[in-house]
Amino acid sequence: MCHEKNNFLISCCYFSCNRQSIKQETSSLSFSSKTIEKSTGLCKTSEDSCAKTVFEYPVFIVANHTALNKFIASKLRAGYMDTLVHENFEEVMQQFLNSFDTLAKQMPDFNQSWELDKKMEVINQNEYFITLHLSTYEYAGGAPPNGLDQYFHYDWKNNEEILLAHFLTNGGAEKVKTVAEEIFRREFKLSKDISLDSAGFLFENGKFSLPQNYVFITDGIQFHYNDYEIRSHAEGPYDLLVPYLKIKDIANRDGFLKDYI
Questions:
Q1: pLDDT at position 143, please?
Q2: Does the structure show a pLDDT above 80 at 17?
Q3: DSSP code string of the chain
Q4: Residue 94 confidence (pLDDT) above 60
Q5: In whole angstroms, what separates CA 30 from the centre of its chain?
Q6: What is the dihedral of CA 82, 88, 93, 96, to 10 degrees?
Q7: pLDDT above 90 covers what percent of the chain?
Q8: Distance, CA of 101 to CA of 114 (rounded, Å)
Q9: pLDDT for res 253
Q10: Please, are residues 8 and 147 in contact by the beta-carbon 8 Å criterion?
Q11: How much is the pLDDT for 24?
């Protein structure tokens, strides 16, 4: 759910505005969409003091996809601004509402509107894997809203999450990083001898690294850096495209990427 609050609209809708470039495959898994909503306070108008949370996610209806549904639930129940993994994602929702109620009781003049939304979508599936996109929006007063985009790739035949290395030949991940840094420096007009931290980027120890989140689109692998991951909130998230032509010699053609390259 995207809300026009200050500059967050740009980062919240960044992915959806570019979604048409994702390579789509013929659907092979049946699922339905489920939505759970919880709230506390009035929540009747935009001026009311209340908190609400909405979780929307796919439910796969074939019996042997229980493991996939559990995988989805595990991603939904991870806390957003902490490292806790809750018992279930409805506990995440309730904890958010409880925090609002606690603060409202402590402050008689408390008048805020909080929101926590998580939306998981199926953005690609083929005979090898399924790609899920999880967008999270959280606003709990004070600072600007927080937004997060995550991508998960799941081998639905063997019931396991697929990491980047699965899509590449041995040693391929390091070469992708090398190619990606070359593209990154070219886009920001940075020569090889300029350190990334002196250029204002927030890479750990000033060394280039790939983000955990990536998605396969028509022209290549699109790596997604979330807000605050490598630069300030004002500059927003950043997508780095590594063309398939640059990595065709290290792609796992016999497996997961054979439909792309």
A1: 77
A2: no
A3: ----STTHHHHHTTTGGGGGGBPP----S-EEEEEEEEEEE--SSTTS-EEEEEEEEEEE-SGGGHHHHHHHHHHHSB-SSS--B-SSHHHHHHHHHHHHHHHHHH-TT---EEEEEEEEEEEEE-SS-EEEEEEEEEE-SSSPPEEEEEEEEEETTTTEE--GGGGB-TTHHHHHHHHHHHHHHHHTT--TTS-TTTTT---GGG-----SEEEEBSSEEEEEEPTTTSS-TTT--EEEEEEHHHHTTTB-TTTTTTTT-
A4: yes
A5: 23
A6: -40
A7: 51
A8: 11
A9: 59
A10: yes
A11: 47
Residue 149 reports pLDDT greater than 70: yes
* pLDDT > 60? residue 13: no
Cβ-based burial of 169 (10 A; exposed 0-12, middle 13-18, buried ≥19): middle
The amino acid at residue 41 is: G
- Calculate helix-pair angle for 66-76, 89-106, nearest 10 degrees: 20
- pLDDT band at 188, cuts 50/70/90? very high
d(CA 252, CA 72): 26
Judge residue 257's burial from the number of C-beta atoms within 10 Å of its C-beta, 0-12 exposed, 13-18 middle, 19 or more buried: buried
Asked if residues 70 and 128 have their Cβ atoms less than 8 Å apart, the reply is no
Q: Tell me the two tokens of residue 28.
A: 């092979």
For residue 165 the two structure tokens come to: 């290395």
- Taking alpha carbons only, the member of 258, 254, 249, 253 closest to residue 175 is 249
Terminal C-alpha separation, the chain: 33
**Percent of the chain residues topping a pLDDT of 70:** 83
Token pair belonging to 180 = 């990606």
Alpha carbons 101 and 120: distance in angstroms, whole number? 27
**Domains observed in the chain:** 8-162 (3.30.565.40), 165-247 (3.90.640.20)
